[in-house]
């Protein structure tokens, strides 16, 4: 028996000028979700059930960029994606291009448990959702006023939100307030929406699991897939750990970030925090990202190389922390 | 050191008594396409150009499960996917769910170089292909009679045709139905590496199913140490992050290419699920597999060349 541990995140890359009210709202949600997860772990739910449960909660709340409250495509619609992985057996499930599914992470779980495949997308995924009878809503349900506003700004600034770190063109002419020198994914950070939510957990049996869910990049092209549904990039869990990442999609994909944490633990014998620090420092080149991780021995760790990551973590011995900045 | 190149046409349960008329065209294609890759390397084309070029040829060849000749989904349609990665920059491009694009690997490359994203799928990918002026054909162009037959058999057997599964009835010896994917890896004399993979996926797959091929780190990977393209059971390759793991083992455990690839294929990936081709920055090449066979070919600048299907003696 090991002590359980859990971590949640609501995106890496936060505007240092984010209004206090927003910061407080975010922290409240993280706290609530963390407590939900803790309660579930104390009731001996398995890690895979816990991560799904917690991410469902994060998806349902409109604050972060997943489920309801997802960022919008260039067409003003929502296309959601998610993945989930069970360290036990390394089973995994992922979905992309969802437009009506209320809880993408739960559909990802069904792909894992009830389909012969690992990853379903777009209309095939929607068909599967209907077959499975999951809760669905019209696309409008997922769209918030905030995000409509954000999309308009992004389009007026003529900026396409990049996976690569390319400066925004035409932003200067848009007449927005003080331009932040900080950028992520090609957008000034004051209207870059934190990308993703995730949860990792290890239960009292030492089983790890991870799940990640997102609406993706603001103003993305229809059909664009990011790191969140990609096993090994945004999400990974195995015998030794569970990891969920957030930040610049391309950097996470080409760094195979989530897998990397596990690989240095397995192949170099690093401990969890060492592995997280190493990967953030050495595997991101000039990309900006963050991640949360748990190990089978009940440790929890987070790391990020950008300004802030919405996160919360807790371990069985009573440690608990919800934070945004360093 | 000299250049090295390897290409594959899928790993799976390819029975040793496969009829000549099913074996020969594939062997001939592998030979021909290998030569194309070799000429390109001799002409000093970059490995990124070479892997794209070679995979285009494999896609155009109807005998392999990519581009024309792709296997069919449960709906009788073609949904193709591909991925390309540049070892130097680790820039990558991927595409899934295309039905009319003649060369998915070229679309993956365009996504990498000309779009603000890394991975596009389905309608969005099709729209981008048209925007970029890539060659498209009517969906029927990609569908071959053999694949219609394979789908029919799979449905009758009511199973998703995994590439490794033993035939249900001994007399059902359609061994070449067990096709995977196509891929190419290459390194030039300066140690620049690239990898590309392309596929139609699994016979009778659910519409919308994405396999390992477009997932960076699973079916395709390249960095400054090596370039890898994997083939076999998608779901297993994803879970084992096969392509990345070969590179990781080289990097973190200091194993050489052959050793690292053998370790992943023999000790880590479940038997009957995985094959891969790899080249290293040192100009080495390896093509291990734990399935019955893998359609493959490789060559190095010093004149070594191999075209094979089953284990070499």
How would you characterize the overall build of this protein?
The complex is a heterodimer of chains A (326) and B (313). In chain A, the strands form three sheets. An eight-stranded mixed sheet of chain A has the order 4-3-2-8-7-1-14-15. Chain A is globular, with a radius of gyration of 18 Å. Chain A has helices at residues 20-42, 47-60, 104-114, 122-132, 145-156, 249-254, 257-268, 272-282, and strands at 5-12, 80-86, 91-98, 119-121, 183-184, 187-188, 196-202, 208-214, 224-225, 235-237, 241-247, 289-295, 300-304, 309-315, 320-323. The two termini of chain A are 32 Å apart. The model of chain A is unreliable at 161-180 (pLDDT under 50). In chain A, α7 crosses α8 (272-282). Chain A has eight helices and 15 strands. With 326 residues, chain A is α+β, with helices and mostly antiparallel strands. By secondary structure, chain B is an alpha+beta fold. Chain B is 32% helix and 22% strand. Chain B has helices at residues 20-42, 47-60, 104-114, 122-131, 145-156, 234-239, 242-253, 257-268, and strands at 4-12, 80-86, 92-98, 119-121, 182-187, 193-199, 220-222, 226-232, 274-280, 285-286, 293-300, 305-308. In chain B, strands 4-3-2-6-5-1-11-12 form an eight-stranded mixed sheet. In chain B, strands 7-8-9-10 form a four-stranded antiparallel sheet. The longest helix of chain B is centred in the N-terminal third of the chain and has 23 residues, at 20-42. Chain B is globular, with a radius of gyration of 17 Å. In chain B, 64% of the residues are buried. Residues 162-177 of chain B have low confidence and may be disordered. The chains are: A alpha+beta (326), B alpha+beta (313). Chains A and B meet through β3, β4, α4, β9 and α6 of A and β3, β4, α4, α6 and α7 of B.
